[in-house]
């Protein structure tokens, strides 16, 4: 895969090194001479130029790349690069760094952004995930589809403790993607039994009611039952 990274700061260089270690081709663009630390990512191609200008992107042969990553510390630059890459050069996939969470609303397909990565939001999610038990934590949102990746650690009083995955009345457009038990990730089957402290990684569609999902996972159902149904009959257990 051929990847163009705009921004040669610590973030851009780290991404480049990781991609190169996986045998991808990488070009790094930055307009600041002080940022051209070529020796630190010697296997990448480097270009000293302003990526917000069309001639620069043409020189970098952006039209031939698979992905462009706008990783500068300036949200305006990241938006312009994404828009030019998508509209002028037809880059299949654009990934843009969001520095200020207040600007997240702009990082969507109207600005040519396929995937927006907000470091502050990710760090916030990681902090919440580390301390929250029994709460849904949004780990990531796919901006194109609106789908979310949610995490929940099952508390001791969850009605699902000791229940098989196949018995859980998952809301529509909700998929249990993985169970993390201790340090062990588990690909869930309908016969796996949920335990206290299990971390559930859940993928939900754009219109899923998170309050309803939380009720299923943590709270008792309104009718006094435990919210569990038989997967064969569809009746409460």
From TrEMBL:
Question: Pfam families under this entry?
Answer: TrkA_C, TrkA_N
Keyword Transferase (UniProt): no
Domain annotation RCK N-terminal: ranges: 1-117
Give the GO cellular component terms, alphabetically.
plasma membrane
Keywords for this protein: Ion transport, NAD, Potassium, Potassium transport, Transport
Domain called RCK C-terminal: residue spans? 137-219
InterPro entries for this protein: K_uptake_TrkA, NAD(P)-bd_dom_sf, RCK_C, RCK_C_sf, RCK_N, Trk_Ktr_HKT_K-transport
Asked if the record carries the keyword Transport, the reply is yes
Among Gene3D superfamilies, the record links this protein to: NAD(P)-binding Rossmann-like Domain, Regulator of K+ conductance, C-terminal domain
Picking any one GO molecular function of the record gives:
potassium ion transmembrane transporter activity
Checking PANTHER family in the record gives: POTASSIUM CHANNEL PROTEIN 2-RELATED-RELATED, TRK SYSTEM POTASSIUM UPTAKE PROTEIN TRKA
Q: What is this protein called?
A: Trk system potassium uptake protein TrkA
Question: Species name for this entry?
Answer: Oerskovia douganii
């Amino acid at each position: 895969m051929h990847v163009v990274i705009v921004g040669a700061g610590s973030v851009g260089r780290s991404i480049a090194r990781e991609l190169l270690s996986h045998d991808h081709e990488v070009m790094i663009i930055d307009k600041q001479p002080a940022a051209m630390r070529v020796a630190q990512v010697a296997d990448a191609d480097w270009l000293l130029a302003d990526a917000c200008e069309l001639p620069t992107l043409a020189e970098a042969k952006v039209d031939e790349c698979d992905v462009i990553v706008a990783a500068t510390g300036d949200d305006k630059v990241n938006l312009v690069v994404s828009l030019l890459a998508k509209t002028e050069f037809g880059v299949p996939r654009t990934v843009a760094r969001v520095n200020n969470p207040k600007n997240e609303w702009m990082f969507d397909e109207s600005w040519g952004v396929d995937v927006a990565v907000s470091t502050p939001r990710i760090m916030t999610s990681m902090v919440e995930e580390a301390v929250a038990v029994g709460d849904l934590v949004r780990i990531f949102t796919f901006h194109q589809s609106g789908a979310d990746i949610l995490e929940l650690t099952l508390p001791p009083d969850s009605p699902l403790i000791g229940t098989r995955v196949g018995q859980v009345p998952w809301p529509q457009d909700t998929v249990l993607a993985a169970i993390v038990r201790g340090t062990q990730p588990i690909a869930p089957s309908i016969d796996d039994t949920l335990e206290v402290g299990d971390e559930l990684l859940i993928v939900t569609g754009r219109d899923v009611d998170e309050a309803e999902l939380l009720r299923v996972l943590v709270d008792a159902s309104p009718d006094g039952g435990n919210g569990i149904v038989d997967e064969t009959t569809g009746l409460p257990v």
